Structure formats: structure tokens, C-alpha cells
Protein 1
Amino acid sequence: MKLLVSVESLEEARVAVEAGCAVLDIKNPNEGSLGANFPWVLKSIMDEFPDLECETSATIGDLPHKPGTAALAAYTVSSLGLDYVKGGLYASTTFEQAVEMMRVIQQAVKMANPNARAVAAGFADWRRFNGLSTTDLVRAASASKVDVVLIDTAIKDGSNLFDNMGLDELQEFVGLCREAGIMCALAGSIKEKHLDDLARIGPDLTGVRGALCSDQSDRRSVIDPVRTRAFIQATEEAVRRAQRAA
């Protein structure tokens, strides 16, 4: 289980890289859980770290159901050389819509960068806004042949991943991804207290931002170097405990 640390600026990227993050994820929390950042911010970060040991990731937004817009955004971001490009299927409410969106995102990502992975991002709290179910999310990802499926939370009101999905549901989600041969990722207001459960569930990636911020009640505040290093260390320890117990 690799820790994906979400940043919104070059300054935050420096903090995350120095702390030893496994995946440096660039987003804009002012525009939602999968909010897209500006191209000049993405480029400044990629230019700053041309030889990163960690992987890189970026979001292209909590997307409306506009496949052409999504494909253009995916192509642009992929051309910057990132390892993962995440599209949030916020307005795709059916299996068919999700397949349509993810097929064009996958095609655009691979067209710009054959080594990049396209990520289909759905939401644990989908029931709260008539979104796409997590089961249909995995089915659509398999049908569109995307590389990774992510579950986050769309509504940032203090509820977290585990408030919206039980352990059994999360284990089923990871199992479905494994059966489909797709990488899986879990996020959504993750705290240190959740790490042992996450390590036992065993996603490939776990995403975090709010728990690293200087003001933990505001995910739009800057990430803190001490909290970031401590969370990365806690993640590594949780993974080791899960491995020993297996």
C-alpha cells in the first residue's frame, strides 16, 4: 500500500518530496475532491523534480459528463509526464456513461504518454448525490480497460471513507478490482486511526491530504512538514503490521 500525498503548490510538493512520499499527487482542493490544478502549477512541479524517485499523479477534475472536454484535459495533463491521471466521474451516474467517459480518457492518456496510467475516480458517498455505485465503477473500469480505480469522498463535510462504506464493502471493492486485474486506490478524509484497517484491506494506493494540513479542519490549508513525515512513517508501520499478521 503506497501513500499518495495530495499537494496544490510547488511549495507543498517540496514538503511532500522531502518527507519521502511514495506518490506525489497534484490537485486543487478549492475545486472539489478531484479538483484540477492549473497547467503552470503542474509544469512548475514537474520541472522542479525531473528525476523524482517517487511516482507522480494529477487530477483533471470532478468532471461533468462531457467526454470531449475530459479527453482534452487528460491528454494535456498526460503530456507533462505524470505516472497517473485521475478523472472524477462526478456527473456520470450510469454504467454506460462511465464507460463512455473512461474510454476516451484512457485513449487520450495513452496517446500522450503510453507509460501513464488512467485512473477512474468514483465516490464512496455516491448514495448522497445519486452518483455511480462503486460496483458499477469497477465494471466500467474493466470495460474501458483503465488501469486504476479510485474511491474518494465527494462531499467534504467531515465524513470520511469509512462513514460511507463499511469494511465489508471496501474489501469487496478491492476484491472486485483484483478479479478484474485493475489497481485500486482508497481515499476520503483518511486519518492515522484508519491506517491499520486500510493496510489489512490492502489497496495499492491510499490518498491523504486533510490529515497533513496545518489546520486539520480545513483541507485547503497548507500541508505541514512534521505531520507529513509522521503520517508517512505511520503508514509504513501499519503496512508492516499487516504483513506480519498475514
Protein 2
Amino acid sequence: MPQIGIMNNPKRDPIQEVCWIGEHGFDFVDFTIEFPRAYKPDVARLKEEVVRYNLDVIGHTDPNLPYAYPIERLMSACLHEFQRCAAIFQSLGARYMNVHPCYSCPPGMKSHRIAHLAKALKKLDKITEDHGMFLMLENFLHPFDKVDTFQQIIQKVPRLKVHLDVGHAAIHQEQNLTEDFLKAFGDRVVHIHLSDNRFRSDDHMPLGAGETDWPTLLQRIKATEYDGTFTLEVFSKEREYQLLSRELFWKWWKGDTP
């Protein structure tokens, strides 16, 4: 049976966020360590609330860290930050820590971007291994939006897991690439993000608010026998949209369509 969670809003107090997530019956918190308010969380307090609400934790890192930029001191600073994040996630009992593709690159080195990323991911993979976790790479925009790019990277980083973002898999694509990733990587896909958009940008809309055919897409995901964790990565001021998205998810997952 799939598990449903949501991400803490880094603009809000992380303790209050975790409590809200627990009080509303979610299975886990996709805890992101980001500015302005979730950069230096009170780990002891967080752990207390995670235990109190029996929440699992998935580690989510800052998507803007330039960790694959070919300046050694810059890379070293980023690796230090990932070390800090990994230690926090380990304390909270997480099994997976995500990382986003690094798009920061000197213009003259763009053709080597994939190789630079793979080299940096080897170092991040060692960090997560040392903390008893797995590293997972999230798909996003070109060139890190295709199955073959991930295959190239995984050949160089064999422990790497795949974090599949369904919203990202639709941006600037002729068709949503979710099924392609699931069929190509099987049980290497260990976590999925869900949000809606209009296929032009990463809008993080509630499910059903954009152009995604959710009843069809969720049944296709189900047919691949994936039944892991889903984060409703819905960004809205009104929290009710996250609750409604969960309600709609279960409706479509069960095949209840008009």
C-alpha cells in the first residue's frame, strides 16, 4: 500500500509543520532543509515530534546548491553542507536523501555537464553510505530529464537511486515520461513527487488543478507495481489543497472515476 506524505514549508516553523503533518494523518514528512526557517532545525525537537506522530522521514536538500561546479573550494563547501544534512536526516531515521541535478556550469563546459554531475554524485553517495542511507537523484530539466541520461549516471554511481518527480516529467515533453522512468529503472525508483502543472513550468499545483490526466497516469503507475512513497508536493497558502489532493489521489488510485 502506498504511503502519502507532504513536505514542510521552509517559510514556516519546522516543528509546527511536522506537527500539522502528523495531526492530519500523513505517513511521513518529506523534510526539506532550506532557508529561511528550516535551514538549522532543532533536531532533538523534530525527532520528538516524528516519534510522537509515528512519522517516517525522507530527506530533501536545497535544490540550488552548486555542488558540481568545477571550483574545488566551492564543491568542498557544498559537500560540507550535504554532510550536515545527512547527519540530520540520519538522526531523524531517514533511509533516503534526495539531491537535485546541478545546473551551475561554466558556459564552455556544458557538454561535460553529465560527467561533472556523476563525479560529484560519487562523493555524495559516499556521504549517504557513511550515514546509513541511499542517495537518490531527482529528474528535472534538460539534460537531466531523460532516461538515457540517468542510465549514464547510474553506470558511474551504481548505488544511486531514482527520485521520480511526475510534474517534472511532463515539462516541455510530448508526453509525460513517468512510465518511461518506472519501466527503465524498476525498483531503483524509491520515491515519487506528485504535483500538477500545465506542462510549461514547475507550478506545484494541487492535483487536478492543471493539465495532468491523473486517473490514467496513476493507474499506469499502479500497473508497474510501484507501491512506495508519494509526496504531494503542492505549494499553496491554503493547506486544504494538500488534504484535497490526498483525497483525490486515493480516489484515482482505487480507480474510482466518474
